[in-house]
Amino acid sequence: MKATVKWTDGAMFVGESGSGHAVVMDGSEDLGGRNMGARPMEMLLMGMGGCATYDVMSMLKKSRQDVVHCRVELDAQRADAVPAVFTSINLHFVVIGVKLKESQVKRAVSLSAEKYCSASIMLAAGGVDVSHSYEVLEFGGE
Q: How many domains does the chain have?
């Protein structure tokens, strides 16, 4: 896997993935940016959420669950000192569907956390306290 990140000006960078997709990252105005994109640490957090949600949805589809909507809400804490690494991250999955089996959602979230999500497993191995939670809602109940 490869990527390139190019500085444009101030605190703005454009990252391009090996698959050819680009994303803008920028800092806040007080740090010399123009607030035109996500912060790099936000990108890391969103990447982790995307990795975990991909796993959960893949498993729920394979178990023939009728998922209408799925999102993961990430809540991260960072160290007060430099480097301001993540110290804890909670991934809270909200899965909405028709007659979903809670046991299948629980299993999908657990397998993502323990076996499949490379991003969350890597961060946990690096000392980040990573936790997972979920809720299952019946479609029309949100």
A: 2
